[in-house]
Amino acid sequence: MSKITAAITAVGAYVPDYVLSNDILATMVDTNDEWITTRTGIKERRLLKEEGKGSSFLGIKAAEDLIAKKNLDPKEIDMVIFATATPDLPVAATAAYAASEIGAVNAFSYDLQAACSSFLYGMSTAASYIEAGRYKKILLIGADKMSSIIDYTDRTTCIIFGDGGGAVLFEPNDEGLGLQDEYLRTDGVGREFLKIEAGGSILPPSEETVANRQHFVQQDGKSVFKYAVSNMADASTKIMERNNISGEDVDWLVAHQANKRIIDATANRMNLDQDKVLMNIHRYGNTTSATLPLLLSDYEKQLKKGDNIVFASFGGGFTWGSIFLKWAYNS
Ligand code: UT7
Question: Which atom, in ligand 1's list, is nearest to the CA of 259?
Answer without folding.
Answer: 11
